[in-house]
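User: Teach me something about this protein's shape.
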Amino acid sequence: MGYKGALYKLKGLYKFGDITSKIRGKVFINKRGQIRVGKNLSIVGHPWAVQITSTKGANLVIGDHVYINAGVGIAANKEIVIGDNVKIGPRTSIFDSNYHRMDSTDKGELCKKITIGNNVWIGADCTILPGVTIGDNSVIAAKSTVNKDIPNNVLVGGSPAKLIRELIIEDGWVRD
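Assistant: First, the predicted structure itself:
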């Protein structure tokens, strides 16, 4: 089944942005909550499948001109907002829930909103944890774990991710 067949089967499940969206390879959508997608979404589901989940009562918002690479897993249990012109590297995980408590004294929230700003580049094999905001124009280096908010216009890396340097971003510049 080609691209047109896949889009037709998915059309009734959620708003998929405009017709210029590109989906290649295996993409699994588990939609019990809301999924909203902007225009020009590109997903590459090979050689590893991409899995996108929105559980009951959750919201997943994906902006315009977003690129999702192979093996990415996105699971919204509360809310995940991905801005415009975002690039997500292969085998990256974005989960807004811890799913399980650490021990019997853990009374904190299991789910916390994730916000990824505009023009963000997330490298390969990254993990974005619940409750973080990644600022506009920032870059997350490969194999990083983001467990705290990241400001605008910075390069961070490591596990946990730490500031490496500030980035010079001219107004209106969009990452290729």
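Now, about its shape. Confidence is low (pLDDT under 50) at residues 1-15. Residues 123 and 142 are 4 Å apart (CA to CA). If you'd like, I can walk through any region in more detail.
User: That's plenty for now, thanks!
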